Amino acid sequence: MPTTTTIQLFVFMLAGFVGFQTISRIPPLLHTPLMAATNAISGISLVASLVLAGTDRGVFAIVLGTTAVACASANVFGGFLITDRMLAMFRRTAAVKDVKED
After folding, report:
1. 56 in the Ramachandran plot: left (φ > 0), alpha (ψ -120 to 50) or beta?
2. Any residues with CB less than 8 A from the CB of 87 and at least 6 apart, and which?
């Protein structure tokens, strides 16, 4: 395995470990702001994956870019749905009843 690939694999595993440790130690009260920030970061990765999918660097780059677009889109849209659902838990019940009646 080339040295660059080994370093990239190490960084990927380290990022996964640090991400898991960070998320598991976040109190539930901070999950909604954290999800909003994560959605913004996923939006940036969506733009980057669109650029990769649009380059003419071969079939593998196009397939990888298209897969990245699908994953980043699912992450962004799902994150916004979850954030909206979590914020709905903090609304007053009268406001929720008015919304349901409309």
Report:
1. beta
2. 32
